[in-house]
Amino acid sequence: METKKKIFIIDDDNFLLDMYALKFSKFNFEVTTALGPEIAIEKLKGGFKPDIILLDIIMPVMDGFELLKKMNDEKMADGAVKIILSNRGQASDIARGTTLGAAGYIVKALSTPAEVIDKVNEILKSSKK
Questions:
Q1: 122 — phi, psi (to 5°)?
Q2: Which of 7, 44, 48, 92 has the most crowded CB, counting CB atoms within 10 A?
Q3: CA-CA distance, 9 to 32, in Å (whole number)?
Q4: How many whole angstroms separate alpha carbon 10 and alpha carbon 56?
Q5: Helices of type H across 1-129
Q6: Residue 129 lies in a domain
Q7: Distance CA 61, CA 106 (A)
């Protein structure tokens, strides 16, 4: 039996966290969520090692770009595939995410939850060495 991939979803919207957690868990993912970057950092520093990190950009206190940079600088979740899931889809945002090590960029408004899962699976396949 295939082992479940651990996905860590970081967003400041409880409704979206719950919805994506439910959807991903139905597709054989082990889901952990964090309501905002502070909780995410706490979990990562506490030793949580996800396979995939799905994070929003627009969050209070620290945006997703700052969180990605902090994860990189402090070697948190080094082996995780990092994917941005945001409503911001400007080319400059996508380029910035890629520069910070994001393996993919999904625009929420343009994707149904099922499409988000498909895209995450595609990114995972293409990022395997």
A1: -60, -45
A2: 7
A3: 6
A4: 6
A5: 14-26, 37-45, 64-73, 91-99, 113-127
A6: no
A7: 22
Q: Is 15 among the domain residues?
A: yes
Considering only CA atoms, which of 95, 90, 94, 44 is closest in space to residue 70? Answer: 44
42-95 pLDDT, tens per residue? 999 999 999 999 999 999 899 999 999 999 999 999 899 999 999 999 999 999
Per-residue exposure over 40-53, b if at least 16 CB sit within 10 Å of its own CB, e if not: bbebbeeebebbbb
The structure's pTM equals: 0.95
Could you tell me the CATH number of the domain that includes residue 102? 3.40.50.2300
φ, ψ of residue 82 in degrees (nearest 5): -100, 130
Give me the number of domains the chain comprises: 1
The boundaries of the domain holding residue 31 are: 5-124
